[in-house]
Design goal:
The complex is a heterodimer of chains A (336) and B (326). Chain A has ten helices and seven strands. In chain A, strand 6, helix 7 and strand 7 form a beta-alpha-beta unit. In chain A, helix 1 packs across helix 10. Chain B is built from twelve helices and 14 strands. Chain B starts with a strand and ends with a helix. A seven-stranded mixed beta sheet of chain B has the order 3-2-4-5-7-6-12, sandwiched between helices. In chain B, strands 9-11-10-13-14 form a five-stranded mixed beta sheet, sandwiched between helices. Classes of the chains: A alpha/beta (336), B alpha/beta (326).
Amino acid sequence: MSSLAATPTALGDLTGDDLLRMYRTMVTARLLADRFWILSRQGKTHFVITSQGHEAAQVGSTSALVRGVDYVYTYYRSMSVALTMGFTPYDLLLSVLGKRDDPYSGGRQLPNHPSSKTWRMPTGSSSIATHIPHAVGSAYAARVLGEEYVSVAYFGEGATSKGDFHEAASIASIHKLPVIFFCENNHYAISVPERLEIPAGGVAARAAGYAMRGVRIDGLDPVAVFHATKEAREIALNGGGPTLIEAECVRLVAHSSDDNDRYRTSEMLDALKPFDPVARTRARVIEHGLITEDADTAMRATITADLRKALEEAEAAPAADPDEARRHLFAEDHEA
Amino acid sequence: MSEKTISEAIHDALRDEMARDRRVVMLGEDVGFKGGVFKITEGLQQEFGEYRSFDTPIAEVAIAGIAIGAAMSGLRPVAEMQFADYSLPAYDQIVNEAATIRYRSNGMWGVPVVFRSPFGAGVHGGLYHSQSVEAAFCHIPGLKVVIPSSPYDAKGLMLAAIRDPDPVMFYEHKKLYRRVREEVPDGDYTVPLGVAKVQREGTTLSVITYGIGVYWALEAARTVATEGISVEVLDLRTLAPMDHDAIAATVAKTGKVLVLHEDNKTMGIGAEIAAFLSEQCFDSLDAPIARIGAADCHIPYSAEQENAIIPNPQIVTDMVRKLAAY
């Protein structure tokens, strides 16, 4: 955790309200994720995969993007990205429950694979790293069509072991395409620790091999992440080429509901607690007088009540229609 | 209107569509400055610029993946896999990504990419410049698979493929690139995907085939014509979706079918056609379905060994006689 700063990054051009807004989204993501795991244990969902420990990295970075302009390629852990973009807890619950009105896929794709045409979030795969060349493709399209946007690919450090990452990074850098490679390094690829994934020096160091800018940042501090992403965005738009951002963070829970996490001892999990980005950000906003402890408690109660209501509505929402199961293999006439 | 080879016809289709639609781009290994190892994209970079005919590193995953992302951002990419053999590193991108994106996004995102590849044996290319890979892609929901056999069809099918809203695998037989010439219109026209074509009318039996098999079948048909055997040759042109109506129509007419392809036999396109015939056209059949494909073997380099593996007009002629006599 070499990147983790002793003191948090200064707000810079962010206001206290901006930070408070990010904090609120982080809390919502955390409480919603905790609810997903309960649904999993209750047998109400087939699968959950969540972002506890990644909230600051995701909310901070997505807050620096321009919604509906930039292309945002997510991965299966991007639920805090989705909430920052504007999806609601109700939307995410429809996805987790595989309902007809799941806005990502109509119940087809596994939960937490965001997709939005309006917000330029192309549908995510479950395969690792396959979307990274897609993000470079969007940046290439900007070059061909003369449009001004950046294309962002979110992925874990595990993805940087794959050829897809290497091939995409190489081409993006050769042509200085406007891409941000945003790596959330939680130091585990399911059970395989970073020391068995990456020969030396973390993820950002890989950038040197592509003659690309690489930065390693404190992924537990949404302000640090925001500024690093904003800077990478400006560099990309000004022709400076792609940046590989390594946001160090932690995975506070198992990889997914199909993982028992037994490869990490309870001592190891306890040792992660000081690195909880939600707790750290809470301490900061209280310390800086942006919110009182009472107001924070009240805010959490409101979010919890809203989530309970959203869950009731999502459970009551129509199931996916088996007669629709074979639709959308190919364009329909109105889509062609 | 002038006489063109298949390679010229495909080049013209690409060039015309790039001129007509600025969203159309070429990408792949050697497609840009060099114009492709088979000259299919010759002159396009010089005419349309570095990025619209884009030289990539040797990175098939990225070629396919960048094409997919570009397609989701408004372009109409034609991604060249330099040889069909080398499309296999990109199999994951094509099968797990391009083919699934519309489905898994509930129709929200589409991938209008043409993945084009030279394929096929008979040019002494050895194991890695000779393969037929179409069956592996025909098995995948969400993909269309096109194989033209003539210059006219090659241009019209390519224009239809580029304008198609979904991913299309477009295979060009290397041995046919410069083998035949025919009149090809200069202007814009399309040949619809999914529609087969009767290349020769006949009454005794039908050869259902595609690609270079069409020429083997036509040669066999000419050979046996003087023997009172009248062979109908159905050129599938598109393998996925397959033109089942045309297959049913030809078997209803002749009652006997030989399925022919250069790809190896086991688990191939011919097996699928035979299954369709037995499920849907059993009452039309007057003879067991005959099937010819390459031996279930890799394609060796030496001419003597290669000739021992892949079918040829003589083998087709022998089978036609046998089937006619049944």
